[in-house]
Amino acid sequence: MAPPGPPLWLLAELTYRCPLHCAFCSNPVDYARHDAELDTAQWRDVFTQARALGAVQLGLSGGEPLLRKDLETLVGHAHGLGFYTNLITSGIGLTDARLAALRVAGLDHIQLSFQDSTRELNDFLSSTRTFDLKQRVARLIKAHGYPMVMNCVLHRHNLPHVGAIIEMALEMGAEYLELANTQYYGWAWENRQALMPTHEQLREAEAVVNAYRARIGNRCKILFVVPDYFEQRPKKCMNGWGTTFLGVAPDGVALPCHAARMLPGLDLPNVTTRSLREIWRDSDAFQRFRGTHWLPQPCRSCDSQAQDHGGCRCQAFLLTGDAAAMDPVCDRSGEHGKVMEIVLQGRLAEAQARTREHGMVFRSDGNSLRLSSEAGCAGRKSAK
Ligand code: SF4
Ligand code: SF4
């Protein structure tokens, strides 16, 4: 196999600590069992190595990256290396003083998350009272002259609010709005019945988005992606496993996809014991699903294999118990019925008008420890 190109996008998950408890958090369900964090010198070294490999874009994420007191130091180092730096934050802890310091350090871009356009739902979904604070932080970000992406994870509770969410983004002066339909990994997988939308909700929300796009043009660019479960063909996982994305978890575990930590049998390398070059080019974890040589049938004989590489490995594992299976989102998969069944169960839950409060498991240290011990193997649990 030809050597891979550079990992253009480095995602540094600086910490799993977070003051919020989102019911759809993409952090691993067993995050509370991984509380070690790289120190400042180790992160600086990771950034230096990644830049030498050709990485150009750096996402600083978590958990909540503002909980790291050395965030400004890390941003300054990354900026000095020539990275385009993006802070991905809930906004909690983003004060006027920290924004000024991040400006001096050279931070390029901020992505601020909201859970909804209403205080009630925003605060319910994050299990905190943070809506008003986030509004103040959005104003501060703009006052400091930053381009801002507003991010809102969508599911059946807030899809009917899409118009109001767009209005909120316009009012705040966001240049981009990412309406990120829930992908069902991590905590969202635990809550899939409570979060799964209906086809009608998705169609209506998409129509609202298209009407706004036609009306507001480039004033705010809106990204809206239909969730995998409502497609007939899977997406190319991470633009192709080991082609573009390199994630590093708080404890130094290197990840070909931010959810890959749950995959059994994948010996994930750690930046504290191996060089980033070796990890990216030669490690089994990054080689395992790189390219198409490993594809099972019918993907191996399918015309679409170059477009989707057989879909998402984590989705395949969660739905079939086998990370090397074809993604059951594909309607050529013998397991596609499992996707349809989950969508149907979501519809039934909606029809039975279960209240939001019932059936949601919020991200917390206690729930993380409980769920991962129930799973019996560090949070690795599939539907099989
Ligand atoms: S999704 Fe919510 S709980 Fe998870 S890291 Fe982001 S803000 Fe924190
Ligand atoms: S059969 Fe495999 S390669 Fe073909 S469309 Fe489905 S997932 Fe993609």
TrEMBL record:
Keywords assigned by UniProt, alphabetized: 4Fe-4S, Iron, Iron-sulfur, Metal-binding, Oxidoreductase, PQQ biosynthesis, S-adenosyl-L-methionine
Record flagged with keyword rRNA-binding: no
Pathway: Cofactor biosynthesis; pyrroloquinoline quinone biosynthesis
Entry keyword annotation includes Iron-sulfur: yes
Domain Radical SAM core residue range list: 4-215
Substrates-to-products reaction catalysed: [PQQ precursor protein] + S-adenosyl-L-methionine = E-Y cross-linked-[PQQ precursor protein] + 5'-deoxyadenosine + L-methionine + H(+)
Entry GO MF terms: 4 iron, 4 sulfur cluster binding; cyclase activity; iron ion binding; oxidoreductase activity; S-adenosyl-L-methionine binding
Function: Catalyzes the cross-linking of a glutamate residue and a tyrosine residue in the PqqA protein as part of the biosynthesis of pyrroloquinoline quinone (PQQ).
Subunit and interaction comment: Interacts with PqqD. The interaction is necessary for activity of PqqE.
Family stated for the protein in its record: Belongs to the radical SAM superfamily. PqqE family.
NCBIfam families named among the record's database cross-references: PQQ_syn_pqqE, rSAM_more_4Fe4S
Stated name of the protein: PqqA peptide cyclase
Organism, scientific name: Cupriavidus basilensis
